[in-house]
C-alpha cells in the first residue's frame, strides 16, 4: 500500500526470466535421450546446485520444462543435464547442437538428503531416466567415499540400449567400493545380465535395514514397488527417499501445477521421504 | 532453408474454415512467405503434387470417394490437421445420422439414385490418424495462426482443452446462464473462440464440440432448472458436433 | 463487532466523487465497481459518477440478478463475477519484457477481498522467489475498503473470519450509511490514507454515528445465511480424500472452471511461448489456468487428474485444506463468488458440511 514509485524491470531479478546459456557439449545417451553441458553465455550464472535439484530449461519460442541436473557440482558455472525427448521442448533440447542457446532458471527444489545418510550404507535405485537426478548423488557420495559404508547402485531400464551412462555405470561396476547391478525389462541379443524389474536385483542384495538409506527415482509405479520391497526388508519409511514428478510451469511456487496434496513439489520437493508421501501416492488421481 | 509445404483440402463442408485462412488479411503475406502453398483450391488455381509437410483438412467424410480421398491425403501429409466442426465432429450434415437418409435424398434431389453417400457422416479422425484438431464453426482465425506458427517453430500447439467459461471470465463477459439471459452450452464446450457468442449476449451453441472430459449431458439439469424445456435443450445439443468422438450421435428425429 | 478505528470522519456522496478525482489527479488508475451487462464488474472509472448508485444484487447458487434499490447505496452488491485479482495478477502477462504499470487505486474493496489480496500476497510475496511484478502492482495500489453492511445470500465471510468489517490492509475504509442521509464514515489505515483523507471535504462523525455503524456491522455478521462448518477444515479435507462425496459432486460438476476464475485467490497459471510465423520474434506469456483444465496435471508419464471428481477434490481440498500447509492460511475468504457463479449451483459451504456430516457417528 505504500506508493513506491519507479519502473518495474524484467531482468535477472525477475524470477521468471531465464539466464542465457550455451550448449558446449552434447552426448547422445540413448535413442531418445541426450546429455547437455551448458555454460553461461553472458556473465550471469545460476547458483550451484545440490544433487536432486532441477532447473527450468527453455528454448525460445518453443517453451520451458523442468529438467533434473545430472552432473556433479562444478565450480566453473557449467551445468550438466540429461533430457529425454517426450515432447516439443524436450525434443528441441535433445536436438540442440553445440553452440545452441538455452535459457536456464534455477536450480530449484529440495534435493536428496545425503547428510542424514552419513556413516551408513547407501542404496540407489534408478529406473530409466531416473538415474539422471541420482548420478550427482552417487558422484557426491564417491567424493566423500570414506564417510559412507556400502554404496549399492541398482539400475533398471527397458532394454540394454536404454541404459543411461553405460560407460560410467560400467566403470562404477569395476570399482571395489561400489556394488552395481543393471537389469532390463526385456533382454536383447548380447545381454547376459538379469532381466526383470529393478526390485529383482534388490531381492538378491544384502541389506542392513538399520544402516541403509535408499534413494529412489523412476516411474511412480517403480518407486512404489521398490519402496514396498524395501519396507518388507525392514527399512524404516523415513529411510527411503523418492524424487517425484508432476507438471511444473514455473519451478518457484507460482503456477500451482505441481501439487501433491499439501506439497508444491517444486519447492517442497521433488525429493520426499517415503513417510511423507506414501499415503498421498496411495490415493488415486491426487 | 526449404519452406515447409502446405495443402488445404475440402471435403463435405461449406468452405468457411478455409476462408478463415484467407481472412488472415494482415498475416496472409507472412503465411505465403513462411510456407509454400501447394494445394488450396479456394485461393489458387495452382495445384502442385505432394508430399505436404502440413495438410489442413476441412469437411466431414460423407461419401465413399471422400473416405478414399482422406486416406490418400493422410499418406501424402506429414502433419494432418482437421479444421472446423465438420472435420472434427461431423458438422450439421451429421444430423442425418440416425435419420432416414433416403427420405432426405428423395426430398432434396431430383435423381436420388445418382447420389453416393455413406450411411453415416463421420469426422476425419474416424478414418485416419489426425495430428491436431482445430474446433469450431468456423475455426478461429487466431487459433489457426497460433497453430501454424507453433508447427513452423517446432512448438506444441497451444490447443485449448477446457471450457468456454474460462474465456468468458478472462475476457470479462458476464455469465449468461447465471444472469438468466440465455441458454448457453459454454460450460461443456471447448474453448478456443475467445467466448465470441457470449460476448455478444448470445448463448454458446457448442460449435466447438465438448470440452475434453466434459459430459455434455451434465448441462441438461442446469438448463432445465432455468426453465428451458427438454425439446429446446435437445435441439440446442443437436448442433454441428453430434458426430464428435464420445458423443452419442443423435439424429434429427422428432424435431426434423 | 467493534471496528476499533480512530474517530471516523464523514463524507457525503459528493465526497466519494471528490476522492476519485483526487486519486486520478495523483496519477492513479482508479478501479471501482460499475454496472455492465447485468452485473457489477470492476473497471477503470474516470469519475465517481460511474459508480453504481442504488444498484443491488440478489445472489443464490448459480444465480445473480441486479435490481434497483429503494435507496442510492453505492456498495451494496456482493459477489460480482470479478475480483481485484485481475488487476494485481493479470489474466495474461508477459514474463520476458519490462513493465511499467501505472499506480492503481481500488475503490470499494470488501473485507473478504481485502483478505483475498492478503492471501495472494502470501502466494506471490513468499521468499525466496517473490513475484516482483505482482509486488510492484500491489505495493503501489491505494486501497479504499468498504465495510459490508449488507452481505449477499451467498456470503459467508463471518465464518471464514474475514468480515463483514474491514480490519486492516486498507489505506481508507468506508462504512456506507443510507438511513438518516446518505453518507460514508471514513477512517484511514495508513499514513497515505490519512493524507488523502485530509484533502477531502468532511466532518467528524458523531459518537452515535460511529456506534450505529458498529451496530450495523454486527447485524450484518448475524444475518449471514451461509457458513463453513466450525471444524478444523484442513484436517477434515485431508481425511476426506477417499470420500464418495467427490463422485457425487462430479455428477453435478460441469468441470467448467468458473469457480476458479471467479475465486479471488485462485492463482494458478500456465506459461506459453508465442512467436510470429517465421519465429523471428519469441515471447513468453503467463496466463490464468485452472485445476479443472484437462491439461493442468499433464506429464509425459500421463495426466494425473483425469476424472472430474479428482479435479473438484483438488480445488476444494486446496482452497480449504492444503492452502494452510502451503501458505499458512485458508485459501477461502468467504466471498461466495464460486457459489453464485457456478452454473450448476454447487455450494462449497454445503459440500464442506456434507463432508463433515459423513464423519458424524450414526
Annotation keywords:
A: about 290 residues, Elongation Factor Tu (Ef-tu), domain 3, Rossmann fold, six-stranded antiparallel sheet, 14 strands, C: about 350 residues, alpha+beta, eight-stranded mixed sheet, three-stranded antiparallel sheet
Give a written overview of the molecule.
The complex is a heterotrimer of chains A (286), B (256) and C (362). Chain A is built from 6 helices and 14 strands. Chain A has helices at 88-94, 131-143, 166-174, 199-204, 220-232, 274-281; strands at residues 19-30, 33-40, 54-59, 63-68, 79-84, 101-108, 121-127, 151-157, 179-184, 212-217, 240-243, 259-260, 263-264, 271-273. The radius of gyration of chain A is 19 Å and the shape is globular. Chain B folds into 2 domains: 5-152, NADH:ubiquinone oxidoreductase-like, 20kDa subunit (Rossmann fold, 3-Layer(aba) Sandwich); 164-237, no CATH class. Chain B is built from 10 helices and 5 strands; from the N terminus they run βααββαβααβααααα. Chain B is globular. In chain B, 46% of the residues are buried. With 362 residues, chain C is of the alpha+beta class. Chain C has 2 domains: 9-223, no CATH class; 233-359, no CATH class. Chain C is built from 13 helices and 15 strands. Chain C has an 8-stranded mixed beta sheet, with helices on both faces. In chain C, a hairpin with a 2-residue loop joins strand 14 and strand 15 (302-303). Chain C is globular and about 65 Å long. The model of chain C has no long low-confidence stretch (mean pLDDT 94). Chains A and C meet through strand 13 of A and helix 4, strand 12, strand 13, strand 14 and helix 11 of C.
